[in-house]
Design brief:
alpha/beta; Cytosolic phospholipase A2 catalytic domain; 15 helices; about 15% strand; globular
Length: about 350
């Protein structure tokens, strides 16, 4: 019988590209050799984390897998009512992006001219109803399940805020996914919050400091590297989006790398960071052709495609790296995050 390996998961946000993470989680949950001790998520990663945690608490791994499928299926159903859809030409050419969708272009321009406080004065957020209908937050707060962390950005202080399982509410998940050009800031206990991606996408320190497992797996959606210089306006905006939502992760990994080096030479004593092993599941090649506009594409066929990519890549990752879990890091931090 194969040895059970305990891991922690750090889930990056990225709109509907979070369906890639759904596929990653689906494959990990399917594997009886893998146990998840803790999950930290941002934006779509936070939604995946909370839905998976609630499913695990109530019906184990199969319950979590079914809960995740149900969540993304309902996301797709809600998106059917949106005026932001692919054009006929995009469909005929098999493109998942919305760069030339009249609905997308209109709302993109409108969001630069009109704030959500003017456009949506009642602060209606359809995602709230969806999350509340699928997650029993009362149960999440009191269950003794996996450790759960959700990242948001404090609007007033500009600092990272990490919400934990014992206090978790739907508003905290919405705060983690609150893009300020689309939604009003989410207010919790007198403080306003925006998308956690600005300060921690995802954040790693809660997992290292509050979990016992040595192996931390980063599930990354936004590509770090791209060939060439973007020259078209949509390509420039897409690259700005990727860099902006990767910068906090790069800085945190850089700090952790420095800590580990100081520990290795004896200048610092910290067993938690000394023992931490880092891994990464990503799909830079598969997701690179998708522009930022595709992050609002919620067609079921697209979400299933992303899920299948995540599932397939994770299967290959497990085949290659399972034996290294608990032994060594498979993520080369220097080459991926630090070297120019």
């Amino acid at each position: 019988m194969a040895k059970i390996k305990m891991i922690e998961l750090a889930l990056q946000g990225g709109g509907s590209h979070g369906a890639f993470t759904w596929g990653v989680l689906d494959r990990l949950l399917e594997d009886d050799r893998i146990q998840i001790e803790g999950i930290c998520g941002t934006s779509a990663g936070a939604m995946n984390a909370v839905v998976a945690a609630d499913g695990l608490d109530r019906q184990g791994k199969e319950g979590a897998r079914e809960a995740l499928r149900s969540f993304w299926k309902n996301v797709s159903k809600a998106g059917q009512l949106s005026p932001i859809q692919r054009t006929l030409v995009d469909r005929m050419l098999g493109r998942w992006t919305l760069d030339y969708s009249p609905g997308y272009l209109f709302f993109d321009m409108l969001s630069r001219l009109v704030s959500p406080y003017e456009l949506n004065p009642l602060g209606i957020n359809p995602v709230k109803d969806l999350v509340e209908s699928l997650v029993d937050f009362e149960h999440v707060r009191h269950a003794e399940g996996i450790k759960l962390f959700v990242a948001a950005t404090n609007v007033r202080t500009g600092k990272l805020k990490v919400f934990r399982r014992e206090e978790m509410t739907a508003d905290m998940v919405l705060a983690s996914a609150c893009l300020p050009f689309i939604f009003q800031a989410v207010e919790i206990d007198g403080e306003a919050y925006w998308d956690g991606g600005y300060m921690g996408n995802p954040t790693l320190f809660p997992l290292v400091e509050e979990c016992q497992a040595r192996d931390l797996v980063i599930v990354q959606i936004n590509p770090i590297f791209r060939e060439g210089i973007p020259r078209r306006a949509p390509d420039i905006l897409n690259r700005i989006n990727e860099i902006s939502f990767n910068v906090s992760l790069i800085k945190e990994v850089r700090a952790i790398s420095l800590l580990k080096k100081l520990i290795e030479v004896g200048d610092l004593q910290d067993q938690l960071y000394k023992d931490a092993l880092f891994h990464r599941i990503n799909a830079d090649v598969e997701l690179a052709p998708l522009s930022v506009s595709s992050k609002v594409n919620t067609e079921w066929a697209f979400l299933e495609h992303l899920h299948d990519v995540g599932y397939r890549i994770t299967e290959a990752w497990l085949e290659k790296n399972y034996e290294h879990l608990g032994v060594r890091s498979t993520l080369d931090i220097e080459s991926v995050y630090l070297q120019e």
